[in-house]
Design brief:
about 375 residues, alpha+beta, FAD/NAD(P)-binding domain, D-Amino Acid Oxidase, Chain A, domain 2, 2 domains, 9 helices, about 25% helix, about 30% strand, globular
């Protein structure tokens, strides 16, 4: 029977980065993931963006801190994560768009973001592929993107190198108290852990039920597409519809279009598919802002689950009635914030000081913070 100081259930970016941070601090860590590799669900199926300019204003400080991790400046993330800093343009097509962009960006600026509101002419100088009749844009020079498949593989390699025990292709079927800790059944294995972290992403509702906790969460189905290799370059990360839809060029040369209107699906039983009407609407909106997209063929589409509560608040806290059991998920732009949140989460649980407090969660009790 394996014994761990911390057992993480769920190998998305939040679970994986938490495991990395606990192991970096000297703990014996196990990570259970139902897929055959880490970061294969929401974390591997997102559009790869690291945009401060679409972040919830109250989470902007975490976005700013996360950029140092993605650029390999903070141990143990001193690795190549394929980060590309290209700057983002939040494009306004009409007066309503402009009002939303300015209002939200002023709040982000108040939280420390460097964002400039620029004219149509200035936006076209930064990104000549924009439609010539856009109204204005917000420009954030710090924004960029990472290929999530490359980033996910790098996280998995880092976790292994730090000694995290990876239990891949395993599903947790039972969690029960055992003294001051927990006994967990995962596949044909029985595990013991002093602390348990539930980081199962879109499957958080099902995971919480194993602790006797009911939560009303919404699972969203994001739709993504990538085009054939473009013969013309895009210089910037472009967003439209208040940041809900993004358009950017990935390293191989294809243009990635992500977010926007949702697809269809559920996690229990698991299924997902494109909603063709909304998907075509996403493509049309992208081509409205970047007209030369009409010259390219879409060569791949996919969907990815995302989980939220009604207020889009982080789902972080002590699971009610269960000491040393925690929930971690539902963080807006979680792919972006994962490395930073993992560090803050680990230090908070271990009673260590942190540069930023753990974001207030919407589930359970607040995790006690060391004085």
């Amino acid at each position: 029977m394996s014994q761990f100081d911390v057992l993480i259930i769920g190998g998305g970016v939040l679970g994986t980065c938490s495991a990395i941070q606990f192991a970096h601090r000297g703990l014996k860590v196990g990570l259970v993931e139902m897929r055959s590799a880490l970061c294969m669900e929401s974390s591997g199926r997102n559009a790869g963006g690291l945009p401060i300019q679409i972040q919830k204003p109250d989470l902007v400080p975490y976005s700013l801190a996360s950029m140092d991790y993605w650029q390999g400046r903070v141990a143990p993330f001193t690795i190549d994560l394929d980060f590309h800093r290209i700057g983002s343009l939040a494009v306004a097509i009409n007066e309503d768009d402009e009002g939303v962009i300015r209002e939200l960006n002023e709040k982000r600026i108040a939280q420390g973001a460097e964002i400039h509101h620029i004219s149509r002419r200035q936006a076209l100088e930064l990104e000549p592929e924009l439609a010539p009749d856009i109204r204005m844009a917000g420009y954030c020079p710090a924004d960029g993107h990472v290929n999530p498949l490359i980033g996910g593989r790098a996280f998995e390699e880092l976790a292994r190198n730090l000694g995290v025990t990876l239990l891949l292709g395993s599903t947790v079927s039972r969690i029960e108290r055992s003294g001051a800790g927990y006994r967990i059944t995962a596949g044909d294995r029985t595990l013991r852990a002093s602390r348990v972290v539930l980081a199962t992403g879109a499957w958080l509702e099902q995971g919480l039920r194993q602790f006797g906790v009911e939560a009303r969460l919404t699972v969203r189905v994001n739709q993504m597409a990538i085009t054939e290799r473009s013969h013309w370059p895009m210089r910037r990360y472009v967003t439209v519809a208040a940041g809900n839809l993004s358009v950017k060029q990935l390293t191989p040369g294809g243009i990635a279009i992500g977010g926007g209107w949702q697809g269809r699906g559920a996690t229990d039983p698991e299924w997902s598919e494109l909603d063709l009407d909304s998907f075509v609407g996403n493509l049309r909106l992208a081509a409205r802002v970047v007209p030369r997209l009409r010259s390219l063929r879409v060569v791949r589409t996919w969907t990815g689950f995302d989980v939220r509560n009604d207020a889009f608040d982080p789902l972080i806290g002590v699971i009610p009635g269960h000491d040393n059991a925690y929930v971690l998920g539902g963080i807006f732009c979680g792919w972006h914030l994962g490395p930073c949140i993992g560090a803050i989460f680990a230090d908070t649980i271990l009673g260590r000081p942190t540069a930023l407090p753990l974001p207030a969660g919407a589930i359970g009790q607040a995790i006690a913070v060391a004085a």
